[in-house]
Amino acid sequence: MSEAFINALRTGRRKRVSLADLRRHWLDANPEQLQHPERDALLLDALRSLEAQGCLVLPARGSFEQFGNPPMPKFVTVVTQAEVPHVGDWSGISWLPELGFWTDLTTSELVTAQAINDWLLRRRGKFLTVPLRERSLEIFGDEKYLDLRVRGNALFSGRLPIASIGAFLVPHPLPYRMADAPGQLVLVVENHHTYWSLAEWNMLVRRYAAVVYGAGKAFCSSGPALQEVIRECRGNGTQYFGDVDPAGILIPLRFNETHGILVRPAIDLYRFALDHGSRRSPVIRVIGDEEGAQRWLPELTDEICALWASDRWIPQESLGTEQLFSNWETDPTACEPRVGVI
Questions:
Q1: 52, 167, 193, 247: which could join 135 in a potential S-S bond, CB 3.0 to 4.6 Å?
Q2: How far apart are the C-alpha atoms of 17 and 58, rounded to whole Å?
Q3: pTM of this prediction?
Q4: DSSP β-bridge partners for residue 154
Q5: Closest CA to 90 of 104, 75, 103
Q6: Taking 70 as the threshold, does the pLDDT of residue 328 lie above it?
């Protein structure tokens, strides 16, 4: 992850990189952090780690922001690959088979690989599987060190699974409200205002075992967290409801492509949005969006594609508190809106 980030910085024309460009490159390398509340803190940790490896130089404290949590550097100075000094005789190390790819690593990666190699020699076969930060603290004395180097449950561009060092990624918990409705579906909602309204309504009707806040695109990486919600709520399957636009349709499709657990569309909620929802324009089209609509909502594809063709889309906030309590049955056994009530 930090390798992709520093490579992006090195491809720029200037050695001095502004904070705006740092944030842009960071989110390009880590799109799952788009809505992460601590993304600046994670970026700053990455910059400090890269400085320790000799990849860049942070400015003096006077060139940090005066405010912010944390205050961020206004720029960094990138050290080119040719300027990174080679340290140590890497060929003299007794590399374990798991790290047999060491000859393909950069100098900064070799520093990390050597520490892991030494740890494996000491602990081979004598460790439990623990959260990643616990293992990172043990090996590097920094609980966040490996956060910046893991991508897809592996280190070194996928060549060393973190399971090799007895570690696993602990998913960020998904916010949810549980109703007294074990055995019912779990509903995932894209946006947080609609999440509040549906969760509030569901506490009365108990139609869903829980209503979950998916946090937009961040939901795509939340498979383990969703499984935990289902287990805790004793849910029976999962439905998803989001904006009726290309981006909103692609979120659950990407989730299903990534995880072993499948979410299915909440057809009746989408149906209500199409029948009664507020139309907005313009719509941002993406390649393959009509094919995505066919895969996600085949029963409603023609209407959705006609909507987009008219340069309009429907925000899921169209199904809000007043619409839910006015149009939907409050009997938990009822699954359809009341006919003729708007």
A1: 167
A2: 10
A3: 0.60
A4: 151, 161
A5: 103
A6: no
